[in-house]
Design brief:
Helices cover about 40% and strands about 15% of the residues. It is an alpha+beta fold. The protein folds into 3 domains: about 1-105 and about 350-430, no CATH class; about 120-235 and about 290-345, no CATH class; about 240-285, no CATH class.
């Protein structure tokens, strides 16, 4: 008798409740399932809840609101195709969720722009630019009269000093490029689908020899940059003569230099003045030594090292460009192959759904937005949501299984669909 009474009450309750449930994936949080539930009771009480099935302790996990049918002012609905989670913005969302949403938008709306920016502005590309600048500056050190190289003149010091500074910057950029290619740091598995500013693990290990080749090249390239930082300042001073002699004070007669350095008004420089050296052409009429001369003893000796430095910079640029092409080809191939792997984590699962907007009178003043599945009868749902003065729904709603919808109803462990999370969220937002 008692058992039949309980079953009767359950059957009666089924006839007095309409339950709408919409379950979909949250594209902004990969792996999270969203469950929206709308319960409409014959006595006029309406409740809506939205749960995020996640173990994330920093974000809001649920929203909810309840109202009476008499408070409904208007009901609007629209059928859409896209991501249902885009219609909600939970209070307390972490910045990482918004950043990921921006990345998803950029990946989906402007893929061409993304590709070109990533190819042109990554550390490896910047390393190519800085190395090209070093190569160009080192060749500028050779004396050029506009039509040919005049090797009878001294090397130009200013480009060599610039080359040393640029080599130091290039060394720092090479360290950043090595980090960008994951030559150091924590190992990342190829199955990792999460995005990063560095290439995917499949791109840096596409071929078994790719990573060792990168490591060897960047090791040699770093030593070459250090070599340039040391040798370029030396070459800029090689063969230079400082003409500090006051010629007029060292001439016994016009054009004849035969005075004594440091005596009277004759000055030939600090070292010569301290030694009271005899003033001569080598002090008072000194000129920079040429790169090349008929008499090799008169040359500065910087020609061979300068030519090696300039040619070596060109060879380094050539090999660097080959490394750039190799790694970017692997990146592009990984992008192409990773479409089936990365899209589930980056792009939303577009689907058809109905967006419902309910405007409420005081005391529940404001607008409530929720979604239902595309196969739901939104016309019947609209009639159910409007006050009793409007046309009422059929006398008996379709039979459905009663499920707990919020804390306090039945078994709380059934609140979430995913069995991995059975804890009721502590931060349910009941507006």
């Amino acid at each position: 008798m008692a058992a039949s009474g309980v079953m009767g009450e359950v059957e009666e309750l089924k006839k007095n409740e309409w339950i709408y449930s919409h379950v979909y994936k949250d594209s902004r949080r990969p792996g999270v399932i969203v469950t929206e539930r709308l319960v409409l009771r014959e006595n006029g009480l309406c409740r809506w809840s939205r749960f995020l099935d996640t173990n994330d302790q920093k974000g809001v996990k649920a929203q909810g609101e309840f109202w009476r049918r008499e408070a409904v002012k208007t009901v609007r609905f629209s059928t859409r195709f896209g991501d249902p989670s885009s219609d909600f913005s939970l209070f307390g969302e972490r910045s990482a969720v918004k950043q990921r949403a921006a990345f998803v938008w950029l990946w989906d709306v402007a893929p061409v722009l993304t590709v070109w920016l990533s190819l042109a502005l990554n550390p490896l590309s910047l390393l190519v630019f800085s190395t090209a600048a070093v190569c160009a500056v080192t060749w500028e050190a050779f004396p050029w009269d506009g039509t040919r190289y005049t090797m009878s003149q001294a090397a130009r010091p200013e480009p060599l000093l610039w080359a040393a500074a640029l080599a130091a910057v290039t060394f720092l950029v090479s360290v950043a490029a090595a980090w960008w290619l994951r030559l150091g740091g924590k190992h990342v598995a190829k199955e990792d689908v999460y995005s990063s500013i560095r290439p995917h693990a499949t791109a840096i290990n596409r071929w078994h020899w790719q990573r060792p080749l990168n490591a060897i090249f960047f090791g040699i390239f770093g030593l070459w940059c250090i070599f340039l930082c040391i040798v370029c300042p030396i070459l800029s001073a090689q063969g230079r003569r400082n003409s500090t002699c006051q010629v007029g004070g060292c001439e016994s007669s016009p054009g004849v230099v035969d005075g004594t350095c440091g005596v009277g008004s004759c000055s030939c420089g600090l070292w010569a003045d301290l030694h009271c050296a005899a003033a001569a052409e080598r002090y008072c009429a000194a000129v920079d030594s040429p790169l090349c001369a008929e008499d090799s003893s008169k040359a500065s000796g910087a020609h061979g090292v300068l030519l090696f430095t300039s040619a070596g910079s060109a060879v380094a640029l050539l090999f660097l460009f080959a490394v750039w092409c190799l790694n970017h080809l692997a990146i592009l191939l990984a992008w192409r192959r990773g479409e089936s792997d990365m899209n589930p984590a980056l792009k939303p699962d577009n689907l058809h759904y109905n967006k419902i907007t309910v405007t409420l009178e005081p005391p529940q003043r404001g607008t409530l937005v929720f979604t239902v599945a595309a196969d739901e009868d939104v016309g019947e749902l609209t009639r159910l949501l409007l006050p009793e003065s409007s046309v009422w729904a059929p006398p008996y709603p379709p039979i459905t299984t009663l499920e707990p919808l919020w804390p306090g109803d039945e078994d709380p462990d059934l609140l979430l669909r995913n069995p991995t999370t059975t804890q009721i969220p502590a931060d349910v937002q009941w507006d």
